[in-house]
Each structure stands twice: as C-alpha cells, then as structure tokens.
Specification:
single chain, 35% helix, alpha/beta, 15 helices, globular, five-stranded antiparallel β-sheet
C-alpha cells in the first residue's frame, strides 16, 4: 500500500463576486480531482489549532500529523534547517524577507507593496543579502541567503519575547502600526530601517526597475523561533516518507522529521513551477518509500498577490499535471494507494493573507469507491458529516491507524 498527500497551499478561498459568488475551487476545471472526490471521502479539517496564527508552518505540521500545540517552535528555524544552518539551543532564528516598500515619506510611513519583491530571483537576492551582511553581521548575528525572497537571520542568545508581524499579513498597509515590539525590537527596527538606505538604490534594484520589476528595497524580520525537536516520521508511523517541495519551510519540516527531502529542478514555489517534474519525482519516490508529501506553493502565492485568474489556473495545473499523471501511473502499476488532497489553510483573494477556517479534504482509496457524488469544493465539504477538528489526527485516518 502506498500513501500520499498532495497539498495545494492556500487553495481554499471564499465566494468571489467576480466569479458569480463561486470560489476558485468551484470555478476551476479539475476533472481528476473532482472524480477522486466523488469516489472518495470528502470532508472538512481544522488545520490551525484555536488560538494559533494561521501560518503554513502550523498548518503543515498539523497535516503531517504533528500537533502544533506540542511541536511548534517557530517558522524560521524549520527553514534554517533546510538551508543547512547548524543551530544551537541558545540560537534564535528569524525569517528575513526581501520586501518592496513604497518610497514616500519616512520609513515608518511607507506601505508594504509586496512581501516577495516580485518573487526576486535567488541570484539577485544573494547580492542584496551580501550587502546586508557587510553592515549588520556581528559575532552574534548572522545572515544566510535562502531561496528567492526568503532568507534567515540567526541571533545567538537572542530573545523570543518579541512581537513581529509577517509581511504577507499587512500587504497594502502602512507599516507604522506593525513595527517590532519587545526585547531586541530596537535593534531589529534599526536593521530594517537602515536596510532601506542600503538596498533602495542598490544596482540590483536599479536594474530591476529598468525591467519593470519591483525593487527589493528593505528587509523584513519575523518568524522567530528555536531549534525544533520533532520525532522521526518513520518512528511515529512505521513507514518511510519523502517530501517534495520548493519551499524551505516544508523541506525543513521533512529534515526535522528525518524524512527524505527531494529537490526538483525548476521547482520555483510559484505558478511557473515544474509541475511535471514534481509528479515524476513523486512517482519515482513511491518506488522507494511508502509515503510522499507533495507540496505546491502556487495557489498561496497567487492568493497573496491577489491574482484570481492565476489562482484558478494553478488549481487546474495541479489537477492536470500532478494529480492525473500520479493516479494513472499508480493504476497502471496496479498499486493500491490512499491519496489525500487538501490545502493547508485558505488564502482568500479578497484578503491576500491566510485565515484559520477549516479546509476541504479528499481521501481517495483505490480499493474502495464510496461514490459520494460530490465534487471537490468548500461548500460540498460542508455538506458532509466528516469534520476532523484536530487536524493532526487526519494523518492517522489516511494511514488507517486506529487507537
């Protein structure tokens, strides 16, 4: 028996007037996903524990079967692990985004225009992080280049008693009311403010403006946390697993859980990712392991950017280029499998950030067709009696583990 999760990050949404009050999942042409839904189990799952922020970190830990209330220690440390950064228990890791701020007035009066600086390339970002390192790096504070706009800062003996806001939560807003607060906040704010002076007229950003792209003109520090301690996925569930993702966060969760993390050439974390390559990597991995977690970031990025057409398109591409070829390959091998399809959280186009609402899931078992007759949408999931209120328990259900 093979098990797999196909996670379309942020796929779930809310009714959109422009779509006749349909959601992107309702509007998308996704025949294979709908077929699996009609022949499988459709339901709702709460991936975000009450009181926790609706981040991809908490949500994906939950989907992976790890209770965030027990195991969550911050977002950035998971990403740091995937970057090969050796952390001590006294280190605090922070996410260091390269963002686009508006250019009017003082730093505090600027608006955050883009949390990803038009999805800056890693090569460009590396040059900008080098400039940051030259000014701010000390014996206790170090910066590391990640992928695209996602980077890391490690602060030896830093503090977790600080309030930092994710940049994707305040898109379009004036940053005045979202400045760092707490221990170490003054230094963090100083670095963010000074970074604008360093980056705004950097040659990399001058070239980006000439190409009609937004400048990565400030760092934004957030996502603080300590080194995570996750039990091994294999020890927890008795099977070997692999992760396929373009995103450091998911790779970090895999490494922390001692799973195999598989890199796919051309996997970008946006709508232009290598869907075909991810599907092929999944099919190949299932020859060596019994469980694969295949993560696609594109719907979430489209949600954050307010790109309705692209969000619908990303769902259709997941159906056509990932779900269909994987299902067909397993069926051609006469391989029995259980597949779960779901988002980690909603990323509504109207809000351009995450919410804590429950999300629809499908569990399809190649051995047993339930014939629910319901296509895969948020509304149809609400019609069912299947509601997993503790998201981390859904993995037990997928793997047919009974207590």
């Amino acid at each position: 028996m093979k098990y797999l999760i196909i996670l379309g990050d942020g796929m779930a949404d809310e009714p959109i007037e422009e779509l006749g009050n349909k959601t992107p999942l309702e509007a998308a042409n996704k025949p294979m996903i709908d077929l699996l839904s009609k022949q499988g189990e459709l339901g709702l799952v709460n991936t975000i524990p009450e009181g926790m922020s609706p981040g991809s970190d908490n949500a994906n830990l939950s989907v992976m079967g790890y209770d965030p209330l027990k195991y969550y220690s911050g977002r950035s440390p998971l990403e740091a692990i995937s970057m090969g950064i050796e952390m001590n228990q006294t280190d605090i890791s922070f996410r260091c985004n390269l963002v686009t701020l508006s250019e009017e007035g003082s730093y505090e009066d600027k608006h955050i225009l883009d949390h990803s600086a038009d999805e800056i390339t890693t090569e460009e970002a590396n040059e900008l992080i080098k400039a940051i390192k030259l000014i701010f790096e000390t014996e206790l504070i170090h910066f590391y280049t990640g992928i695209s706009y996602r980077h890391a800062m490690i602060w030896e003996n830093g503090s977790l008693n600080v309030n930092l806001v994710p940049p994707h939560n305040i898109l379009g807003k004036k940053i005045t009311e979202y400045m760092p607060e707490g221990e170490g906040a003054d230094l963090i704010f100083h670095m963010m403010k000074k970074s604008y002076e360093i980056l705004n007229n950097h040659p990399i950003n001058d070239e980006r403006r000439k190409r009609g792209l937004r400048p990565a003109n400030s760092i934004w520090i957030w996502g603080e946390g300590k080194k995570p301690l996750l039990p091994s996925f294999q020890e927890k569930y008795g099977i070997k697993g692999a992760m396929i993702s373009a995103v450091d966060l998911l790779k970090g969760i895999a490494i922390a859980a001692k799973m195999k993390s598989i890199d796919v050439e051309g996997a970008t974390g946006n709508i232009h990712t290598n869907y075909k390559g991810k599907a092929e990597a999944c099919i190949k991995a299932l020859e060596e392991v019994d469980f694969v977690y295949l993560h696609i970031e594109a719907p979430d990025e489209c949600g954050h950017r307010g790109e309705l057409e692209n969000k619908i398109k990303s769902i259709e591409l997941i159906d056509e280029k990932i779900v269909r070829p994987i299902v067909e390959a397993l069926e051609n091998k006469s391989e029995h499998f259980r597949m779960m399809i779901l988002p980690d959280h909603p990323t509504p186009i109207a809000l351009r950030t995450h919410t804590s609402n429950p999300v629809p899931y499908i569990i399809y078992d190649s051995r047993v067709h339930k014939n629910s007759g319901l296509s895969y949408t948020e509304k149809n999931a609400m019609k069912t009696e299947n509601h997993c209120k503790k998201g981390y328990l859904l993995m037990d259900h997928l793997l047919e583990i009974t207590s």
